[in-house]
UniProtKB/TrEMBL annotation:
Domain TF-B3, chain residue ranges per copy: 4-104
Name of the protein described by the UniProt record: TF-B3 domain-containing protein
Record-level Gene Ontology MF annotations: DNA binding; DNA-binding transcription factor activity
Subcellular location: Nucleus
Keywords: DNA-binding, Nucleus, Transcription, Transcription regulation
One Gene Ontology term, aspect cellular component: nucleus
Keyword match Signal: no
PANTHER family named among the record's database cross-references: B3 DOMAIN-CONTAINING TRANSCRIPTION FACTOR ABI3, TF-B3 DOMAIN-CONTAINING PROTEIN
Pfam families, A to Z: B3
Family matches, as InterPro entries: B3_DNA-bd, DNA-bd_pseudobarrel_sf, LEC2-like
Length: 118
């Protein structure tokens, strides 16, 4: 089950990934009172990385992926309009899964395909 799917914006690509607030309960450290937690994330090729998920200390607790996210964007050469799918691993463990997709034309139709490492 996907926690969220998101079409990337310029802020997502250039700075940090804004995560839907409804996903906060999935990030254990954030619901235990901390405003930052490291998440182990695995891409579709099995490469493991760490994203730091942070929220504001006061007010609206909008989560964002900061440290580690920009490296992933560069490696995949992600662009505005690409899509990411973020989910928990199939075994329900502490490693999350991420896929990056891009629309490409095939036989006159636009279809989503996984983005390979550059």
């Amino acid at each position: 089950m996907a926690f969220f799917e998101k079409l990337l914006t310029s802020t997502d690509v250039d700075k940090r990934l804004s995560v839907p607030t409804r996903c906060l309960p999935y990030f254990e450290g954030l619901i235990e009172g901390s405003h930052a937690v490291d998440l182990k994330v695995e891409d579709e090729k099995g490469q493991l990385m760490t994203f730091c998920c942070t929220t504001r200390k006061k007010g609206y607790k909008k989560p964002v992926f900061t440290r580690g996210w920009s490296e992933y964007v560069r490696r995949k050469k992600l662009k505005v309009g690409d899509k990411i799918i973020f989910r928990q691993s199939e075994d329900g463990g502490s490693v999350y899964k991420i896929e990056a997709q891009r629309r490409i034309p095939i036989l006159g139709r636009q279809v989503w395909c996984n983005v390979s490492d550059a």
